[in-house]
Each structure stands twice: as C-alpha cells, then as structure tokens.
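To assess whether the prediction recovers the assembly geometry, we first specified each molecular entity separately, as shown.
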Amino acid sequence: MSSLLSLQGVHTHIGAYHILHGVDLEVPAAQLTMLLGRNGAGKTTTLRTIMGLWRASAGRIVFDGREIQAEDTPTLAQAGIAYVPENMGIFGELSVRENLLLAARQARSIEQLDTARLDWLFVLFPALKKFWLYPAGRLSGGQKQMLAIARAMIEPRRLLLIDEPSKGLAPAMVLSLIEALRELKNDRTTVLLVEQNFGVARALGDHVAVMDDGRVVHAGAMTELAQDEALQQRLLGLSLGVHQ
Amino acid sequence: MSSDAIPRQPFDARPLQLLAAIALAAGLLVSSFPTWATLTLSGLAMGLIIFVIASGLTLVFGLMDVLNFGHGVFVALGGFIAATVLGVQGAVGDLSLGASLLAVGLAAGAGMAVAGVVGLAFERMLVRPVYGMHLKQILITMGGMIIGEEMIKMIWGPGMIALPLPQGLRGALPLPGDVVLDKFRALAALVGLTVFAALLLVLNRTKLGVLIRAGVQDREMVECLGYRIRRLFIGVFAAGSALAGLGGAMWSLYQQSVTPQMGAQVNTLIFIVIIIGGLGSTLGCFVGALAVGLLANYMGFLAPKAALFSNIALMVAVLLWRPQGLYPVGGK
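The predicted structure of the complete assembly is given in tokenized form:
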C-alpha cells in the first residue's frame, strides 16, 4: 500500500523545548489513519509540523513523493493539504457562507462554488444551510466543528489533517461527526486524524499510530489494536471496557 | 440560498444615536437654526476628512495588529505633495470649478500615490522587523515619524506653506435658509463618503474583503487556507498609507496650509477616532470620525477653549459606555 505522506525521523523544537524526537509515520493514500496518544505525546505538534506551522528541525516529510519540510503553510495548502485545528479556526465574525467561500480558493464569489459539492455538504451538515448567513461565532461548539470540517471539504483535498474533532462535543454530535468522517472515507480522501476518544478511533480508523514522548511507539492496523486490550492498556493507558 | 431560518445578525444602530444625541444637544445650546445647520454640515465634512485619514490606520491596525504611530507622516506627506502639485500647476486662483476639481484631483491623487509608495518602504524597513511586538512598534514608528518630519523639513523647509484653494472651490454653496456650506467642505464630504462606500464594498462584498476581515481574526488559519497573509499585509499597509496621503491632501486644503508638524498634530486626533470607533472597525472609525468632527465644530462655536479637551472627554465617555469602542472587532 503506497503512502501519500511519510515522516522520517522528524524532530521539532518550539523555543527551547524539544517536542518531537524523531517521528516516523506513514499515512496510506485513501485511508483514514488515527494518531493516538496521551496528552502531551506530540500529536498536535506532529500535525502542525506537517502543515508548516512549526518547522521541523531535522528529518524529512514527504508528501506525494515531494519533500515538503521546508515549504511554507500556504504552499502546502495549495498543494492540497487541509488542516482542521483543535480550536477549529473558525472566523467567528464572518458568516458561515463567508467561511466556506474563503476555504474555496478557486471560487471568487459564492456563485462560483461547486453547487453539487455544497449540496453534499448540506446533506452531511444540515445546520450549515440553516445558519448560512449567521455569524459563525454564534454557532454551537458542535456546529462550529461541522463548519470547520466542511471548510476542509469544500474543495477536493488530497490530505486532511484533523485535530481532536470530538473534543467537548455532546454524544449526539459525536455520532454526527462519525457519520461525516465516514463519508470522507467513502470519498477516498486521505485523512490523518488525532483523537483522544478511542470509541471514535475504533469506529473510523483503518490504520493507527500511537505516540508517546514525541515518538511513534506503535503503528499498524486499527483492528489489531482494537482487539488487543493489553496493547491498548500498555500504549494508551486505557481499557476498552471503559472507552467503548 | 435559503436564509429563512435565522435572520442576519441585527445591525447595532445605537452608536449612530450618539451622533444624533450630540447634534440634538448642540441644537438646544445653539439658538439659531441656520447656525446650527451650518455647524452640523461643517462638522460632518470635517469628520469625513478625518475618517479618510483614520481609515487607513484602522485598516492597518485591524489586519496587521500594528500600532503605527508614524501614520501622521503620510498625512503630512500627502499635504506637501498636494501643495507642490498645485504650486506646479500655478495660477490656481483663476481656475473654473471644473478645472479646480481637476487640479485638486491631481494634487490629491499624487499625494495618495507618493504616500502609498513611501508606505511600502516604511513597512519593509521599519514595521516588518517588529510584527507582533507592540512596544517596539510604538517606538520605531514614532522614530519613523520624527525622521519623516525632518526629511519633509529638508525638502520643503521648516516653515508653513500656504495652500490657497483654487478659485472654483472658494465660496459657499447656495443652500436655503441662510445655511452655509463651503464648496470645498462639500467636496471633502463627497470624497469621504466615496472612500467609506468603497471600503464597505471591498470589505463586505468581495473575496478580498472577506480575506482581510478573516486576517484580522486569525492570521494563521488564513495561511492554512492557502493565502499569503504577508502579501496582504503589504498591500493593506500601502493602501492605508495612500488613504492617509489622500486625507492629508484634503486636510491641508481644508486648513489652507501645510506644516511639517501637521502629521504629529493629526496623529492624536486619529488615534482618538479609532479608539472611539473600536480598533480595527471601519464602521466604528466612520461614526467616531463624524462624532469628533461634529463635537469639534460645536465646541469651537460654543466654548472654543474647551474644543481640544472635548475630543478626549468624548473618548472617555464612549469607553465608559463601551470599553472596546462603538463597534468592537474580535478581541481588540
């Protein structure tokens, strides 16, 4: 199976702090890879380093055969990598419509949006249609998360980096989120998804990488980790019984 | 697209009531209606010139989070360039209305263009190294202001230069009921309204405007969507400087003179305006400038000695009412 994204011995420093200590990670094309780990393991830093928001101080990041560790963030976005940060990055004073327009780089106005794709998003996230002209900052936490993901999907992307989308969401919203991410999988979009909720991870992941102390300490099929409670306990400090 | 379910966010009209309250209070104190109407029209015209000057600063602060205390140097530069262009054209005293408008248009356009180009250099040399560092921004842009002022003295001399209006723009418009409005003030009001409409159009109706407003809120996310915010910064800084140049040309013609110190003098005024309006808000800047213009004219008539203090008092009153200004933007 070919990898769309590959990290080889990536180190990242933030100021005086050495956060990533040689991350090796393969993200297969057209699959959903979960990135798991305890708080402070380096998951968010890994996504931000891929996106060029923090520079890798050593190592290689290869995207579709091209080294990208020296590229800046706009170049990576233009190459088809979309990022949904943990805080969602919603422009609260812009309307839902303007948030989506901005994410659609090819469209100069809302009329130039791909209407079929927009309709698809409205089926996935009905609230976006309902609150179309509403300031995004007034949406609920779950609706903001839907908007953040819709923004990443408004145009076909090659790779989606999504950071803890279920964080702080009500259970019903988490179910909607899982459905939306399943749609992404069906669309054969490559996704690297950071998640703390093991139930979400198990429901969605094709592959999994587990991080600890700035390194990937386990990588493999999601089914393998889902079935091995002892491995979960060792890697994540949890038991499946608690996190069903 | 359906928008039936939830209406747009209602427009907050209460800050506009501030303007009405100022005008109403002045109406009670100024017994003569023609005098009140004349002061009101003059105040609005003055406010619109101040808006043109301050709009550039609010745009620069709003998008770039840059406290540019050197903004006044572009105002002075616009004024001196306008004076030079009008001087080169010569014999402005004999021009018809059309020719006068053309002469002023050329002068203001030149002031705008030169201020915009100098703004590019100012951003590159002074502002770029201090992005994100407010204290250093204040110090270095104040330094830039001093250097700019001295360079103006080297080129044009330290003294005041008279800037008489072209003949076609002298005198007043014929208005009913003994109300007086100078032709130039009417022109200045028209320019101010055009700038306001253009800014609103660009900011609210174009993707560039959406991008600028998004950049005000979250620069990092704008970059994550594939846009180069640095280029946008440079463009906005040049546009802000050009607007200051245009405002400087209009202000100089309004004062009918230019001095090297005029930039520093208007700096205080425009900071009051953008603080009243809400840092980074174009609409707030507009309402704040009109409030300052109206109050300055009324106070100049009613209590001249208190005129300068009145702007500070207005700012304090507004901040007690709305601590983040009339139309706050994000967390600014």
